Amino acid sequence: xxxxxxxxxxxxxxxxxxxxxxxxxxxxxxxxxxxxxxxxxxxxxxxxxxxxxxxxxxxxxxxxxxxxxxxxxxxxxxxxxxxxxxxxxxxxxxxxxxxxxxxxxxxxxxxxxxxxxxxxxxxxxxxxxxxxxxxxxxxxxxxxxxxxxxxxxxxxxxxxxxxxxxxxxxxxxxxxxxxxxxxxxxxxxxxxxxxxxxxxxxxxxxxxxxxxxxxxxxxxxxxxxxxxxxxxxxxxxxxxxxxxxxxxxxxxxxxxxxxxxxxxxxxxxxxxxxxxxxxxxxxxxxxxxxxxxxxxxxxxxxxxxxxxxxxxxxxxxxxxxxxxxxxxxxxxxxxxxxxxxxxxxxxxxxxxxxxxxxxxxxxxxxxxxxxxxxxxxxxxxxxxxxxxxxxxxxxxxxxxxxxxxxxxxxxxxxxxxxxxxxxxxxxxxxxxxxxxxxxxxxxxxxxxxxxxxxxxxxxxxxxxxxxx
Length: 468
Ligand code: SAH
Ligand code: SF4
Ligand code: F3S
What we know:
This protein is an alpha/beta fold. The chain folds into four domains: 146 residues, Rossmann fold (3-Layer(aba) Sandwich), CATH 3.40.50.12160; 114 residues, Transcription Regulator spoIIAA, CATH 3.30.750.210; 114 residues, 2-Layer Sandwich (Transcription Regulator spoIIAA); 56 residues, CATH 2.40.50.140. Helices cover 32% and strands 21% of the residues. The protein has 13 helices and 21 strands. The strands form six sheets. The protein has a six-stranded parallel β-sheet, with helices on both faces. A five-stranded mixed beta barrel has the order 17-18-19-21-20. Strand 6, helix 5 and strand 7 form a beta-alpha-beta unit. Helix 8 packs parallel to helix 9 and helix 12 runs parallel beside helix 13. The longest helix has 24 residues. The protein is globular. It binds S-adenosyl-L-homocysteine, iron/sulfur cluster and FE3-S4 cluster.
């Protein structure tokens, strides 16, 4: 049994990343007829890990179910980014425990970023002995062995330190139209509030040749869109000798002729002019950038360890908009960072007023054990923080609506992804700028990029009709 340790995770080793080509074959008969229930929380990285986990479960013969009660194995793929993650985990575990009463052979597995937290794993061992397997973000490739080797005791395999890069991974992708493609794992930025560098380890870039090979295969299989995935995509390659820059990688991916290329998330500090030029140059690189601000106050940004000032962020924003006036820009903002003052918060509102984001994810600061910000003194009360969040959201929503309204009566290309869940007579898709569009016709156009006339706009979506 190995336990994770956040302090150990902070001490980055100089160990060179190993690139391991997996060649795993499992006898598909072990669990034939048995069902798996997989629940994933968190970011796109976790969602994509979920696609790997699903594929691994199916390699043992499991088939999916979306009913907990029918499951023979339950895997909970957790996120640790904010405090409420713990409530979600323990709430869900209650349901699992109940399911196990009715099915003694039920296997319960916990993985994802919370499984990389020492306190969580210790509590699982001590208080939740009905949990069968725990594995970390660096051990997903061991899942089948963990399941097969479980001998009526908890099987726990979580490394504290960074893992390797595994190639030849098989995924059960959620879509046959758009795909996630990891370009790097981990993060080296250590923003003072953030737990990701501990739960995901140091930055490890995949080799560009492997990334291109994966995208080429997706093109062959009829995929229309890839999203290059990483916590800090534009630091791509900086951990490798003789590797491409992120801008060069974007260009190489665009040249595979995949219809749409997206990427998430880019850090303002690593954003280069070369990137802006490349995004502007290629029609198949989408004019959409998620550019997390976190705070508009240079004082708070410094405390956050973000490595840019308000002015530098605004300059970057202006450069992007100058090169691509129609580029949509979205952001992440944290309010209530330790001792954020009214003045600091006003600076954030000022940036929002200047950037008029297409949309934004907003959060109240959540202290994460083991991070420097969790130890910072904080005298601001929660009511003030909640009021700030509300005020910020109101402002952001007004800009989202205004940005969306500009689309009314325009004809824009939309990749149709499927039938709308809310209204089975409609289909939905996304514009190149990542706006969700609900469309009244087009059931026969799923998987295609078609011209859609926008008829109405709300804060979070557009309505449209396909131009025949
Ligand atoms: N790598 C991305 C962000 C990943 S986490 C980046 O650097 O932008 C997604 C978002 O969660 C962050 O952008 C931040 O806004 C928010 N977040 C991270 N840690 C948080 C914390 N401790 N409390 C509140 N929000 C947090
Ligand atoms: Fe967290 Fe900062 Fe890394 Fe993003 S860049 S994952 S916020 S440490
Ligand atoms: Fe959550 Fe881990 Fe992603 S903490 S946001 S699932 S990297």
